[in-house]
Amino acid sequence: MIKRTLLFSNPAYLNLKQGQLQIDLPHLKVLGENESKKSVAVEDIGMVILDHQQITITQACMAALLENNAAIVTCNASHLPTGLLLPLDGHNTQSERFRYQIDATQPLKKNLWQQTIQAKILNQAAVLYNRGINCENMLYWARSVKSGDPDNYEARAAAYYWQNVFPKKMEFFRGREGDPPNNLLNYGYAILRAIVARGLVSSGLLPTLGIHHRNKYNAYCLADDVMEPYRPYVDELVLGIIDRGENFLELGQSIKSQLLGIAAVDVLFDKGKSPLMVGLQQTTASLAKCYEGSVRKIVYPQMKNFDKQARHYRLNDGELPMVAESKEDKPDDEGDGLPF
Q1: Parallel, antiparallel, or unpaired: how do β-strands 81-85 and 71-75 relate?
Q2: d(CA 124, CA 135)
Q3: How many CB atoms lie within 10 A of CB 166?
Q4: Distance CA 55, CA 162 (A)
């Protein structure tokens, strides 16, 4: 069963009573609403987002949420996620899995990063394909990724992807401090990062020790690694908002609610589809098994199975649409380890 994501963007009092999260919303009481108090079973909650400066939550409530493997996200005065609280003990063989993760060899981590980047580029290609945009070069780059991605195909793919995925009239440039809809991408990626970190803890892994990201100031290097192939799902939500003509210049309540829906977006695996928050457990569980040495492949979702349509893509190196490259090409999140 998919866990619920609760967003609180108004003053609220949150406490625990008989295993239930008790919610008191004083602003509804002022408006004369009869249902100013509500309750939700703690075990049904996967993530709580606190997006108002006048929210009070009790320690017992936080402890109960964490004991049930929920993530608590706090937002700053600008309504952007700024903190993440995760369970300390998320798996019954946690110390053993920590040891496997810490002892992972460099060749293993390079192989895992190769799989991750291949999955990311293929999902980016799927977004372009669904919008009728040429993605032959993306498929070529995905197949060309080597262990550790020494040729930096991730950056090449990112450059082409961001140049083409949004309507040309927007003149979009991807940057954390860039013009809208960068604000929507930032918010969506931050929520996705929290979901991934929660999944890693549930699988007994340290979200700090990455397979590629190594920034000493980043507490969620592994979460930033694993979320890469899932980013295009956020991109599709943002593109949908733009296509519907909604006002994306400000991160309003309606848009936040849509972006929070990322947890329930259907993702497709070889064995079927499931909501993203549920499917992510397949990814993190398979990663833990890779560290143990029992399997060699991370289970990532596929937005589109291009193998079935290979006949449509007669790739020729000389005919691929290319983008300008330089030695300074880097993925847009490399360096500081932030998720956007």
Answers
A1: antiparallel
A2: 9
A3: 19
A4: 37
319 C-beta neighbours (distance < 10 Å), count: 10
Q: What letter does residue 249 receive in the DSSP assignment?
A: S
Tokens of 112: 């895992």
Q: Which amino acid is at 191?
A: I
317, two tokens? 């190196």
Q: What is the DSSP string of 241-292?
A: HHHTT---SS--HHHHHHHHGGGG-EEEETTEEEEHHHHHHHHHHHHHHHHH
Residue 40 and residue 70 in contact, taking contact as beta carbons nearer than 8 Å: no
Alpha-carbon span 22 to 12, nearest angstrom = 10
What is the secondary structure of 139-188 as a DSSP string?
HHHHHHPPTT-TT-HHHHHHHHHHHHSS-GGG-----TTSSTTHHHHHHH
- Given a contact cutoff of 8 angstroms between Cβ atoms, the answer to whether 228 and 115 are in contact is no
Using CA atoms, how far residue 172 sits from 93, 138, 142, 267, 332, in Å, is 46, 19, 24, 27, 14
Q: What is the tens place of the pLDDT at every residue in 300-326?
A: 999 999 876 554 444 444 444 444 343
Question: What is the CB-side half-sphere exposure of residue 210 using CA atoms within 13 A?
Answer: 24
Q: How far apart are CA 259 and CA 310, in angstroms?
A: 33
For residues 99 and 221, what is the distance between their CA atoms, to the nearest angstrom? 17
Sign of torsion over alpha carbons 102, 108, 110, 111: negative
Give strand pairing partners of 273: 268
The confidence score (pLDDT) of residue 267 equals 97
162-176 pLDDT tens trace: 999 999 999 999 998
> In whole angstroms, how far apart are CA 56 and each of 51, 70, 146, 311?
11, 18, 50, 58
